[in-house]
Amino acid sequence: MNKDTRLSDVLHVLLHMAQDNKPATSQVLARSMGTNPAVFRRTMAGLREAGYVKSGKGHGGGWQLARPLSQITLLAVYEALNRPTLFAIGNRDDRTDCQVQKHVNAALSDTMAQAEKLFIERFSGITLDQLAPDEVTSAPQP
Asked: Coiled-coil ranges per the record (predicted)?
């Protein structure tokens, strides 16, 4: 199964955006994500709608952070990306009369819910400035 790297890709781009602190084009940022500008813009749309980044058109336009890194959590970025699937594990059959399957489903569902709760708790406590190298966090922020 292919891994969804959007979260990692976007975090990488956001930290570079903070480092440069000037507008960067979709083409330049897409290259750093290893994708094309159209995919980059679609990926960043949720972050723009949430107010974490802004984009301008035309000469001198491009993408910039709309908030300081200290005001953006990992959870916020994850949610702006429409919560990519955490686990590829699923129940075999949700609608079953089989008692064994019901017990298996309950155990899997409960464990996944606990893991997701921990994930959300941890991600809500980490801001992007905590991930940035020192030279990025000392750069002027929007």
From this structure: none
